[in-house]
Amino acid sequence: xxxxxxxxxxxxHVRVYTISxxxxxxxxxxxxxxxxxxxxxxxxxxxxxxxxxxNEDPAAWTYSNIAQMQAQLKGLxxxxxxxxxxxxxxxxxxxxxxxxxEMFNRGLAYQADGLVNWDPIDxxxxxxxxxxxxxxSWRSGAIVEKRFLKQWYLKITDYAEDLLRGLDSVDWPxxxxxxxxxxxxxxxxxxVTFPLSSPLRELGTQDLSIFTTRIDTLKFVDFxxxxxDHEIAKSLGISLSSENSExxxxxxxxxxxxxxxxxxxVANYVIGEYGKGAIMGVPKFDERDAGFSKLxxxxxxxxxxxxxxxxxxxxYKLRDWLISRQRYWGCxxxxxxxxxxxxxxxxxxxxxxxxxTSITNGPLSQDVDWSQVSCPCCKSAKCVRESDTMDTFVxxxxxxxxxxxxQNSNAICDKSLQDKLLPVDLYVxxxxxxxxxxxxxxxxxKVVTGDRQAxxxxxxxxxxxxxxxxxxxxxxxxxxxxxxxxxxxxVEVYEKMSKSKFNGVAPGDLLHVHGADVLRLYxxxxxxxxxxxxxxxxxxxxxxRFISRAWNIFQEAKNLPLIPKRLEDETSxxxxxxxxxxxxxxxxxxxxxxxxKLVNHLQKQQSEGKNCRRDVHALCKMLxxxxxxxxxxxxxxLGISQQELVEWPTADALSEKSSASYVLQINGKTRGxxxxxxxxxxxxxxxxxxxERMKQQKIQHFKxxxxxxxxxxxxxxxxxx
Length: 721
Ligand code: ANZ
Ligand code: ZN
What we know:
Layout: H1 11-29, H2 45-54, H3 58-75, H4 90-105, E1 109-119, E2 124-126, E3 145-154, H5 160-166, H6 174-184, E4 187-195, E5 207-212, E6 223-226, H7 231-235, E7 248-257, E8 260-267, E9 278-281, H8 287-295, E10 309-315, E11 321-322, E12 324-325, E13 335-338, E14 342-345, H9 368-371, E15 372-373, E16 383-385, E17 389-390, H10 392-395, H11 399-404, H12 415-421, E18 424-430, H13 437-449, E19 457-463, E20 466-473, E21 490-496, H14 507-514, H15 516-526, E22 533-534, H16 540-557, H17 569-585, H18 588-607, H19 613-622, H20 628-638, H21 642-645, E23 659-666, E24 669-677, H22 682-696, E25 704-708, E26 715-720
Parallel strand pairs: 6-8, 18-19, 20-22, 23-26
Antiparallel strand pairs: 1-2, 1-3, 3-11, 4-5, 4-10, 6-9, 7-8, 12-17, 13-14, 13-16, 15-16, 20-21, 23-24, 25-26
Helix pairs in contact: 1-15, 2-3, 14-15, 15-16, 15-18, 16-18, 16-19, 16-20, 17-18, 18-19, 19-20
Bound molecules: ligand ANZ and zinc ion.
Zinc ion is lined by residues 338, 340-341, 375, 377-378, 380.
């Protein structure tokens, strides 16, 4: 996932890009043609805020940040193709506008009046995905307000079923799939239409439709209820007072079904934008209905069949994506408003609609000259440009297409390149984007490729957070600065790094003090990629020691002749184990520890006067994905050519006396380890080991139900009955 150019790398960037780099380097060394690009997600509010605060030009601010961060990325030895784009480049946002135009032409981009989320701090509307469960903005953290405004939407709901189905075809972490399924919120049920009795006929409404997932409870219905913004509530002028948190009111009307007269209420727990904005109340089966009927003293009706029409219906929680932003530093929506023709697209040949340069923040409409245009359709002179810019999540919803063809101005990407290279094989990034970027990206990918089944990212690797050590007072929960003393009791916990918690570390400083390889090895070794990583400066020494040991081994070996002897079993085993790490489980921490073990072994051999130069060459190559600077220096000491260095070493056949260590698990719990010699069957040795353990614990009766031997690790799990 490409970064936002805030100005400085943070530890999360170091982690995600190091993981990605190690894997890319390994794949290239193993013979794959790897494309590993980097660009910049460069529109967004911080640039505008900097403009307001320091009177800076958002473009200048952004591009200077990009230059600085790119230098830091290169300093980390990250093997990216950097020659791509920033989303604020004119050549890029011309394509963002082209994506919008294509959607407009296909009826997938539209304007609508509606109740929208308004962020009072950032002074812009937000999409539903950008408001968290507590009603706060994903960016500013402000409590979001509701406003009635005309805004632009993208019709993601049209793809709800495809977005659900596609999840079955991708190799993604289950949590992300679950989050997306939940957000899409498919619900199969029925809508039921109840005829209303007389008073409402005069208002032009004849019946009331509700949505239910429990049609089986129909005969127990006691009341119907509509949301406060339902047309029935509106036409009767009924509203609920929020001051004394009024939960409901009787409308005075009834639905008449045969002998039954069912009262209709306005209830605050009925959501206006879901289903039909109306429900049937079944206190006997539904808790909330029970609570409401008790509070409103709704009498229960006699159980019995009701004569209505019933139609099967599927509902989704997913809402269309609101993309209008009333901000400056974003991609202008390429539309002109004409009093005759309505909203009209700017012709493709006239893209991009450029940002006005007379202003640096706030809505584009402030520039009156920029705003006034003639209609692309009827040529009427008195038209205005659309002044909203697009949500920056639109910019990031197709960028992998542009990586393939960044200079192309005729199309988002050449079709033959898309066909040849997409989808992305491996996408690495944070799980926090599960229902933001990763959902939008899948939607736009389907639109841009014209294939509803297409998925942008075959495999997704979500990395955990980097946590910093925080000290806070127990009673007042105040965060202490490093070295700060307090008379209160203090606790030490690991929390997400943040300025306000004084627990952050700056990669720039670390890079300066320790060097890139130390930083890389540290983040790779400290935790497997998918788990959170607790940053502790004290652990750096271990990594440093490893580097100097490897370096000493290179120095020792360089004076010995390179003789064509067999590789040590330990070396061959490490080569094999690395394939498991890079191709199966991505546990790069195990990758580093494999190398640490090998270094120990080779050091021992050298101290016994053995010539292991061939093994040392293999070690030097295997270090390349993890510590490229050390590896390159080693290669020059050992006389390994650049071309040879980038070829992954091949293992020799293991000798008769070789053995490999396996972890033994019993019912999923780790109970120790055992060695399997060359030619032995892993399962047999595991069972022998189990019997021995049982004997020691004096357990005589046990029965093996299953033996599980995963491909992804040297583990044997024995399940007992
Ligand atoms: C009667 C009933 C009986 C219901 C019962 C549930 C249990 P999901 O799965 O979320 O789709 N419902 C329908 N529209 C609603 C709205 N706009 N606001 C609030 N609640 C609404 O849930 C569907 C169920 O949620 C529907 O089925 C309806 O209550 C309620 F024992 O109908 B049910
Ligand atoms: Zn016109």
